[in-house]
Specification:
Blueprint: H1 15-38, H2 45-52, H3 56-62, H4 67-70, H5 74-86, H6 94-108, H7 118-126, H8 128-152, H9 161-185, H10 190-212
Helix pairs in contact: 1-2, 2-3, 5-8, 6-10, 7-8, 7-9, 8-9, 9-10
């Protein structure tokens, strides 16, 4: 999950902003290299700062939590499901939009869907701190999705439906992500991993189709 991401429709950045992004990426890349070499718990913020040739405060300004040095796709990960719903096509339900995008992620071997590479996958799964942080991302993503579904369907404040739907749709992604990550760590080639992911994605969405196929359809 370690990568820097710029929105495709973002405006061109000025020199100062580009330098800040370069500094952030340098810190993240340096930290990831050290984590892979020595393990997450064994590396300190001070060592990362020294290796990246920046002040320790610079590291913490960009990454307030040590875990986010390794998991710096967190913003994209947390917003991924909600964004898919916000940008669904005309006539497309939330379920259909997410099915389509999940299959696209499988075809792309996207890290959001668990394609992290064996070494980085082991780093995430073997570190208790990183594993706990990933669980927090799953929870935050489900909450973001529930908020978006409520807004998109103009749900009343006491309507529990968006929360239930978010739990079901978020649960599918979490199960598929963890399954793909496990196979990645086990050394299953990406092509074989993606083929099984496509099969399981279709099966999972088929289960929910009768209940959610007409929910949150964009007019």
């Amino acid at each position: 999950m370690s990568a820097s991401t710029v929105e495709p429709d973002a405006q061109p950045l000025g020199l100062r902003e580009r330098k800040k992004l370069q500094t952030r990426q340098n810190i993240s890349d340096t930290a990831t290299r050290l984590f892979l070499e020595r393990g997450f718990e064994a590396v300190t913020i001070a060592e990362i700062a020294a290796a990246a040739d920046v002040a320790k405060m610079t590291v913490t300004n960009y990454f307030p939590r040590k875990e986010d040095l390794a998991l710096d796709m967190s913003d994209v990960f947390v917003d991924s499901l909600a964004r898919t719903v916000r940008e669904r096509r005309s006539g497309e339900s939330a379920l259909a939009a997410l099915r389509r995008v999940y299959l696209e992620w499988a075809a792309e071997r996207n890290p959001i869907q668990g394609f992290s590479g064996p070494e980085f996958g082991r780093l995430m799964t073997e570190s208790p701190a990183l594993a706990a942080r990933v669980r927090e991302f799953h929870e935050a993503r489900e909450n973001r999705l529930a908020e978006t579904l409520a807004a998109e369907t103009h749900a009343a404040a006491d309507d529990f439906t968006p929360r239930i739907v978010a739990a079901l749709l978020g649960g599918i992604h979490r199960a598929l992500f963890e399954d793909t990550l496990r196979r990645t760590v086990d050394g299953v080639p990406d092509d074989a991993n993606a083929a099984l992911l496509v099969e399981r994605t279709r099966a999972a969405f088929d289960v929910l189709e009768p209940a959610l196929g007409e929910y949150a359809v964009r007019a």
